[in-house]
Design brief:
Length: 376
Amino acid sequence: MKLNLFDYNLPANLIATEPVKPRDMAKLFVYDKLNTKSSHSVFNKLPEFLKKGDVLVLNNTRVIPARLIAKRIDRDKKLGRKFKLLLLEKKSSNTWLSLIDGRAKEVGLKLFFNNATPSRHSQAGRNLMGKEDICFDNALCGEIVEKYTDGIWEIKFNKSDKDLEKNIFELGQMPLPPYIKQEKYKKENKDWYQTVYAKYIGSVAAPTAGLHFTKRLIEKLKKKGVQIEYITLHVGMGTFLPVKTEKIEDHKIHKEFATISPITAKRLNKAKKEGRRVIAVGTTSARTLEAFSESNNKMNSGNKDVDIFIYPPYVFKYVDGMITNFHLPKSTLLMMISALLSEGDKKGIKKIKELYEEAIRKKYHFYSYGDAMLII
């Protein structure tokens, strides 16, 4: 199948560059698959479109501030050229895979991650004068130890576990997409680019469909009888790396770590056996459910690396509906939504374009901080 089938034109003014306040006041595009009808509302009206007994499955991963600035440590222990890093995946207690923006990258390159060059009067400054190792006291340093494909590098840090995590949270910036202005919303984004139910640290991008939920809305859903369940998938390259192959079947999804607890799997299976709808909040939740399920009524628990690639004419084994944002052209996320709109054939490709054209006419905002769509 050709990649261009999933292309569309979006006016630049409809790309959301800042969050909606409050979160649950984003627009909500509702599409009823059975009756092929669409309607338009506001996200805090979500309970009106769900039934008692419906199950919402949310991804409770927590985003780390994965963008780091570093300077190379030259042989004379002076700081040189600057590099921008995006941490992608934790490999061990002190190693991460990373994208690195900057020239002259090579295995063996040593990097200094503190934000500013130390003064000559500080302990750091004296170390920079060459008397001692530049990676003094609490300074965070790293070394490129291996090169992978797709421009990915492995970094080994001089700290590990909680110490490394603490430094990343102190020095890092939230890994916002390039169309969102980091500096303008730098302080707010550390909170706004997390779901209100984020719990387990490990993602380098937010599961954006969940950004629309407030604690108050979740309680409102529970009072209506909507069941809330949580799974975990740490968002990484599998979710956001672009498709570069002309045939989408040639694209390889990178693995992302996911977890479903035994009690969650048991409750999901009970709901399915009772004929209740399981609605994934976001493509990451949908991919996790499909990767862990064997059939309509059999959801497994445990931990696994998820690399399932969903595109038409995929037939969903477990997911009945989805809450999702409006996605980039030619993205794997758009392909998944196309599959959900018409399972077992390729009609969903045309349908998603029709729905997106309607959203554009009605001035919906797209991408990470954009509006939401409910497909049921």
